[in-house]
Structures are given as structure tokens and as C-alpha cells.
Amino acid sequence: MSRKGRKGKPSKDEEEEKESLAFKVLTAEQTNELLGFNVLQIQDKLKEIFNLGNYTINLTDAAVLDYYTAAVYWGIQQKFTAQQLSGFFTVMHKLLDNVREKHLSLVDNTMEFNKLFAGIGVEEVKSAGLDFFNLEHVRAISEYVYSSLFQQYRLYLYMFTHSQAEEIIGTDLEVEVAKAADLPFPPPLDEGVEEMIYTEFIATPPPTPTPEPPEEEPDPTHELEDQVSTSDLFAQLTSQDVREVIESVTMEMLGNLQSEIGLKLQDKESQIIQRINKIHKVAE
Fold it and tell me: Is the pLDDT of residue 203 over 50?
């Protein structure tokens, strides 16, 4: 039996399915897959779905990916079904799209949010396609949207209406690699490191010196033999020999002394004669 009426109009089920906001942005397959992921896997999947591969260098892509990831993870924490999670993501996607594409003000976007949830919990009023939520869900979603989007609305609006600076996108970075391990790195500043600290902890230690061969110690037997031979030599001398040695040394010392005294006396004598001669000349 056809689900259409006699005049070709869609049935009530088809109208409800068409108006439902579930599975509008995320398909049923994608939503069910996200329900079993952790937060990192959710981020990778959403990056693939919405082509946000430049999130590492593009501020807009990074903010959008973070916004989508946080929304999906929050919905999973609320234990939403696949239909509810997909419908909630459709709401979050539409609100962000109003900022990014339409540049709506906060007041206008708040009115759009209220229209999406109008009629929930009221039988006489037809909802906008989110009938699978109840009033408790609407209250929790309202608090989340206020804290995640509306509180930072001016930042989102500024981000989507101003282009990112080119110098941030195209800045070349120079990375300095470490020097060889055999050199002190980084080189110390003279005014910042004391010489003792530099010498003890930073400077490359000097090479280990080659050990010198040990010196030969004198043989005590030879010293003893020398002492014995000297004492034996003195023991062989007679008293006459000792007297002659003493006289020769005394004569040698006194002889030099006598010659020096004689020279000094001659000098004195010549000086006295000169003075006497001067006195005679004066007397004459």
C-alpha cells in the first residue's frame, strides 16, 4: 500500500521524517559510529567529515573542530540516542553557521535557537523537528549552548569576520640543533658563570697525563759504604798529619790576612806623609 494519499500528497510519516532535524548534517551511519568513539577518535572523524585538515595552522578550522568535537562528546555524555545526538549536532551546526556565513547578531541567533525548540512539551504547538527531545533535554541543551557559544559570541563573530594575519600563517622558523657532545653547550657567559664553576662543571676536562716512570730510590747500602770509607780514612791519620793540615790551613788564611793588612798600612802611611808635606809647605 502506498504511503501517499489518493491525490499524491505525502503521508503523515513522510512529512514528519522530512521535517525532522535528525540526520540532516550527520548521517545515521556517522552518528552511530561516533557513539562508540572516545574524544580523540571523535576529533579525527569530524576532521575527516568536514574537511578540517588545516586545523594545526588555521585558527578558524581549529576553533570549528573544537566546537564540533565538544558538542558531540557532550551529547554522548548526556546518553543521547543516535537520533537525539544527530538532531543536537544539527542545532549546533546551524547556530555556528549563522555566525560564520550570515554574521547574525547575538540577539538574532538567540531567536533562531528559540524557534528550533519551540513547541516541545506543548501538544497544541507543532515543533520545528526536534520532537525527540523533552523539556529536561531542552533545559540542558540551553545551558550548554549558552556556555559554549553565546558567552563567547563576540570572539566567534570576530574570528569569522576578520582574516587571519599572514605573518602567523607563513612565518618561517629556524631551529638550532645542539652542537657536538664533546663541546660545552651552550657556551657560558663570562659575566654569568664563575671561573671555578666553569672549570669544574662546564669546561672540557684536560687529557689524562701519561704517568711518569718511578724514580730509582738510592740504595742505602751505598750510603753506608761511603760513610764507613770516610770514617776509615780519618782513622788512618796520625796526630802529626792532623797538625800539618791545621798549620797549612792556618798559614794559608793568615798569609792572605797579612798581605791585606800590609797593603792597608802602606795606604795609611802614604796618606800621613802627604799630610805632613802639606803642613811643611804651609809653614814655609
Answer: yes
